[in-house]
UniProtKB/TrEMBL annotation:
Annotated PANTHER family: CAP-GLY DOMAIN-CONTAINING LINKER PROTEIN 3, DYNACTIN 1-RELATED MICROTUBULE-BINDING
SUPFAM superfamilies reported in the protein's UniProt record: Ankyrin repeat, Cap-Gly domain
This protein's name: CAP-Gly domain-containing linker protein 3-like
Sequence ranges assigned to domain CAP-Gly in this UniProt record: 304-346, 376-418
Source organism per UniProt: Grus japonensis
Amino acid sequence: MTKERGGDPPAGGVPPPPDPPSPAVERRKKPVVHPAAPAPLPKDYAFTFFDPNDAACREILLDPRTTVPQLFAILRQWVPQVQHNVDVIGNEILRRGCHVNDRDGLTDMTLLHYACKAGAHGVGDPAAAVRLSTRLLALGGDVTLRSRWTHMNALHYAAYFDVPELIRTLLRAAAPRVLHSTCSDFSHGTALHIAASNLCLGAVRCLLEHGADPALRNSKGQVAAEVVPDPTDMALDKAEAALAARELRRLLLDAVPLSCSLPRVTLPNYDNLPGNLMLLCLGLQLGDRVRVDGGKVGTLRFCGTTAFASGQWAGVELDEPEGKNDGSVGGVRYFICPPKQGVFASVSKISKAEEQPQAPSPPRSPPGPPARAPHKARKDKRGYWFGVELDSAGGKHDGSVFGVRYFSCPPKHGVFAPPSRVQRVGGPREEPGDDAPEKKVQQVTVSQPKRNFPAVRTPKDITSESSFSRRSQCPPSASQCSQ
């Protein structure tokens, strides 16, 4: 057993005083890049990672003979024991005379980069990361510096790992310089693009509150709302991520002001007139039922400028598959709808659809069993599913999930269940005999649109990765780093 510094505790069980900090050294005037080195570990140590809470490890951490490259190697270990003590380790590096903008030779990251990465919820500790970041900024830490492996600056790391507390700290120090800085590893998107693509709802809200522009486009012509993963492409076991994606898209689309929709000859300054005001003047708003060129009927989903043509356009989701797209043109998404139900037209060809009188509904049958027979069964990666229309509003949908319709029923009357959880009600089941032929229940399969998109990785997935993975030692997409 390793003997702690300071000897045995005095009589009475009073713990010894804490270890004194390492002696401070005069700080270097210019930043340098430190060579790569392995992380130090105590002799006969049972673990392969450094734990600052262990007495033997802490003795190494506070030992002035422990070098800065070794301390940087400790910071690279992606385990909670290290990341929760990022401020302690960072302060030890500064006490050894390092410049605040010194870099780790293996990852090309500064202490500020490591602090922002250590704010990741789960593996890291936002409070410890904010403490170290605040001190680094006070000492002159440069928020604009980037790692040459990922081209990410400190704000990009804070957005990637969804740490609003760090975003606020960084923007208080250098908002004009970094708020709209782009990153080549994310198609030259801003921090808002990075957060949106990674389903970082907290980071997106924080960036919008501090003035991030949701209308800026990356090198692919996409605004932040368009890089959010499509919730309809996610498996059923990703329901939480799908809900976050839908909320993100709504938040980002609502933050983008609509563009004017009248022809240039009518309004010379039509590019600067807000679209919501123009729609108000026309007696329209997004979500209204409209008729396209006096014929096809649908719902108004988009109004503004596009990348495929000059001028202003209206995007309509048709009731029937009589359109040309799914709300995207040339790889740029403007709204979401099923394939062949999206169409774009000039505002002059859009008019409000007249409400059709509803036919009287047939009288409902007397109350019966709590659930009706299954409408359809759908097949996905986990087998067959029955879609059931309930008699009361105790369900979850109207027969559609994530924009894909499997059957129709009133809202909150639809529910899906596997066959093992569905049974016939309303009387005893007839057994086949001489006078009664065997009754069979036919399963009807409704095909689901083919989806070939890759699985979405959420920040929760990222922060729960193994500490021995390649990513644990390098920042995101730093595939060039070697152990």
